[in-house]
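Thread: GHMP kinase N-terminal domain-containing protein, structure

OP (GT): Posting the sequence first so everyone is looking at the same thing. Length is 308 residues per the record. Can we get the structure tokens written out before standup tomorrow? I want them in the notebook alongside the other entries.
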Amino acid sequence: MKGPLFYAKILLFGEYGIIKDSKGLAIPFNSYKGALKVSKNLSGQALKSNESLKDFYKYLVELDTEIVSFNLAEFKNDIDSGMYFDSSIPMGYGIGSSGALVASVYDKYANDKITVLENLTRDKLIKLKEVFSLMESFFHGKSSGLDPLNSYLSLPILINSKENIEATGIPSQKEGKGAVFLLDSEQVGETEPMVSLFMNKMKNEGFRKMLSNEFVTYTDACIEDFLKGNVKSLFSNVKQLSKVVLTNFKPMIPNAFHKVWEKGIQTNDYYLKLCGSGGGGYILGFTEDYEKAKASLKDYKLELVYRF
């Protein structure tokens, strides 16, 4: 058995904000992917994955919900036969490793599943997101369901609000100088502690005000600019967003990158933002001149995501 491939995702804009109903824009990232496979001789990562699937199975058995049901007998049988998730998506890096796994399990074992080929109405997208949120909560404690949704559909997803999401098109890539890139922090980040930290910060009125007045405003503007191809305005808004994140989300930025982050804002060589919940993994970069950014960040590993 070898299941279909499910890809990584990148949340270009909207991290943390989407928990509080800002806009979000997520795109598939086909450089990394995973699929369910079966092997009789499990060792290393495959064995670890199989153990994790056993725990996930127990979680799904106890899931008390009307909105989805699974063929759990078949799921258990496959796990007992040595099923694992064979994935190149780095874990704890903010690009949806658990999302791809959740999408693959839903695809194979959900009864009456919503398929990618049918007419994806807003109601169906909301239902899928709800199902995925329930499923992925096993991994993160609290999940928006967006990562698995993106991986499952393999389409860019625009989140207008919790109740309003749509598959969208993004401008086709150009052979320009500008780029979106990933910067490898070479540290693993854990989602759950970061989300808890954010929820604690939300108890502070000043933080809540900053979130709605600054963070959400710049996030929404960035999304609009990106989708419309307003590159000049996009970089101006990304710079402001980068400043807001550095000032207010410092605990989510690995310590070794505070100065690197600031350097980008001061030199305009690049602007950094969180990729997912932060705390490690990838950091997302935007630059009007990728060659200049590479020279400025020569001590770090960069990966190209999108060209302007």
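GT: Both are above now. Quick notes for whoever picks this up: The longest strand covers residues 24-38. Residues 179-307 form a domain with the Alpha-Beta Plaits fold (CATH 3.30.70.890).
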